[in-house]
């Protein structure tokens, strides 16, 4: 009986050891698989500096409507050579545009819907509503472009509604950015290139928005005189 | 005995360093348009030119220049590229930055630009253009790994050409102060004799050191 117990105990020990070994192997396989899968998919949350633009203020009181699509904008793409990418740029873009519009316009109020009535616009004391949208985002890796850089572009649409809640004009702006990146620095380089693209788009808006014909006409309709143009038009 | 061993190690170390460094030839040229000098507290900014074609000055090159100018003798006070661009946003972005010193007058007329540059006491802007490219490569090397061991056999080489130019603008006079160009060329090798032995030429680094030294003398007016 004792022998049997010992035998059973021994068997039990062997079983336990076998289970442990199997568990270790499974854990190792799981870990390696997880590592391989994570190497194939990247999520980049765009983060960076938000500079305050040094520009003349446009004497306008505007409501700004950031849609949920704009606030949470993310881009997903599957690349044969570089795996799956998710790039979340909405949050950074909102932070950037908040700073930009607050400096660029005399007064800014964030509104929670685009289609405010004329009465609501007047009650809020606004001249109009500005709606920024991201129409397209794209990026290129060195694997696709054959260049040394990661590059990104953001296409914005700015829609301006007047005090009667009708569209007075739309303007498409494209921002470009590129950044060097090593073999294992793709995420960092895409972040940097996207930040530069947002900055570039913001720079165009800060300098060229008041030069747009529909903006000039809108200002004239309000009998508002913009700050003197110092830099000559490059359009 | 210890002294002899130390000498031997030093000799071996020197030998390895000499063996692993390939030759680089370089040329620095300078054109001066104005008398320069840097008063106490005045600063300079090193800016890489960004373009939208397939060439751009590497950030590592401007960082190398900044490190050399800040740490050399005498050190030069520098405002970092990122800080300068943020402080003067949107006027020094890739698309909006002034293309020549003659555009500075227009830029300084923008509200706040002149004040911000005066506050930071920035005297010079140095625009860096150029890059390092591989102009030739060849040879072949193969490496094998097996359960019995491994090794590399063969030889490969690549020739790199580093060509950079610094355009220095004087922000007190709103004019170009001069240009400095640095060219360096070198060929690197990897010889596979079981163990791969790299013999590296670093023309980019040589161009950086040469340009930094000349830039220091130019700014200080030496």
Question: What are its keywords?
Answer:
heterodimer; A: 235 residues; alpha/beta; Double Stranded RNA Binding Domain; 2 domains; five-stranded mixed sheet; three-stranded mixed sheet; 7 helices; 30% strand; disordered N terminus; B: 222 residues; Rossmann fold
Question: Briefly, what is this?
Answer:
Chain A has 235 residues and is an alpha/beta fold. Chain A has helices at residues 2-40, 68-71, 90-104, 118-123, 142-145, 186-208, 213-221; strands spanning 41-45, 58-64, 74-79, 83-88, 105-110, 128-140, 149-161, 167-180.
Strand order of the largest sheet of chain B: 1-6-5-4-2-3
Instruction: Please give the order of strands in the largest beta sheet of chain A.
Output: 5-2-6-7-8
Strand content of chain B: 35-45%
Order of helices and strands of chain A: HEEHEEHEHEHEEHH
Q: List the secondary-structure elements of chain B in sequence, H or E.
A: HEEHEHHHEEEH
The major β-sheet of chain A equals: 5 strands, mixed
Question: What is the CATH-assigned architecture of the largest domain in chain A?
Answer: 2-Layer Sandwich
Overall, the morphology of chain A is: elongated
| Class per helix and strand makeup of chain B | alpha/beta
Structural class label of chain A: alpha/beta
How many β-strands of chain B, per DSSP? 6
Which regions of chain A have little confidence, pLDDT < 50, spanning 5+ residues?
A: 1-14, 230-235
Annotated CATH topology of the largest domain in chain A: Double Stranded RNA Binding Domain
Summarize model confidence as the mean pLDDT of chain B. Answer: 89
End-to-end gap of chain A: 99 Å
Describe the global form of chain B.
elongated
| Overall pLDDT confidence of chain A | 85
Strand content of chain A: 25-35%
CATH class division of the largest domain in chain A: Alpha Beta
Number of helices of chain B: 6
Oligomer: heterodimer
């Amino acid at each position: 009986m004792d022998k049997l117990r010992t035998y059973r105990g021994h068997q039990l020990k062997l079983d336990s050891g076998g289970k442990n070994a199997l568990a270790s192997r499974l854990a190792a396989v799981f870990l390696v698989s997880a590592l391989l899968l994570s190497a194939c998919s990247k999520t980049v949350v765009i983060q960076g500096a938000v500079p305050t633009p040094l520009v003349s203020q446009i004497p306008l009181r505007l409501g700004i409507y950031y849609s949920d699509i704009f606030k949470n904008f993310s881009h997903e793409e599957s690349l044969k050579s570089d795996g799956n990418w998710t790039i979340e740029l909405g949050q950074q873009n909102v932070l950037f545009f908040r700073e930009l519009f607050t400096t660029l316009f005399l007064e800014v109020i964030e509104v929670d819907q685009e289609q405010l009535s004329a009465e609501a616009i007047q009650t809020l004391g606004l001249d109009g509503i500005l709606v920024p949208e991201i129409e397209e985002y794209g990026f290129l890796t060195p694997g696709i472009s054959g260049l040394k850089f990661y590059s990104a572009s953001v296409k914005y649409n700015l829609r301006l509604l007047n005090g009667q809640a009708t569209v007075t004009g739309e303007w498409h702006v494209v921002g470009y950015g590129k950044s060097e990146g090593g073999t294992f620095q793709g995420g960092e380089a895409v972040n940097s290139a996207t930040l530069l693209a947002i900055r570039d788009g913001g720079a165009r808006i800060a300098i060229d928005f008041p030069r747009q014909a529909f903006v000039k006409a809108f200002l004239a309709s309000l009998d508002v005189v913009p700050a003197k143009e110092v830099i000559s038009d490059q359009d | 005995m210890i002294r002899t061993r130390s000498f031997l190690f030093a000799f071996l170390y020197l030998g390895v360093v000499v063996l692993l460094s390939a030759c680089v030839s370089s040329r620095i040229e300078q054109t001066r348009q104005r008398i320069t000098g840097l008063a106490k507290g005045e600063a300079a900014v090193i800016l890489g030119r960004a373009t939208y074609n397939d060439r751009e000055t590497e950030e590592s090159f401007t960082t190398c220049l900044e490190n050399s100018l800040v740490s050399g003798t005498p050190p030069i006070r520098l405002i970092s590229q990122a800080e300068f661009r943020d402080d003067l946003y949107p006027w020094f972005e890739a698309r909006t930055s002034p293309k020549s010193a003659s555009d500075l007058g227009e830029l300084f007329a923008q509200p706040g630009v002149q004040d911000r540059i005066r506050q930071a006491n920035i005297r010079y802007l140095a625009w860096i253009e150029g890059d390092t490219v591989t102009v030739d490569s060849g040879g072949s090397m193969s490496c094998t790994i097996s359960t019995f061991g491994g090794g590399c056999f063969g030889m490969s080489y690549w020739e790199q050409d580093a060509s950079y130019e610094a355009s220095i603008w004087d922000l007190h006079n709103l004019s170009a102060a001069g240009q400095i160009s640095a060219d360096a060329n070198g060929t690197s090798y990897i010889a596979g004799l079981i163990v791969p032995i790299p013999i590296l030429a670093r023309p980019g680094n040589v161009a950086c050191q040469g340009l930094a030294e000349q830039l220091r003398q130019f700014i200080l007016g030496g």
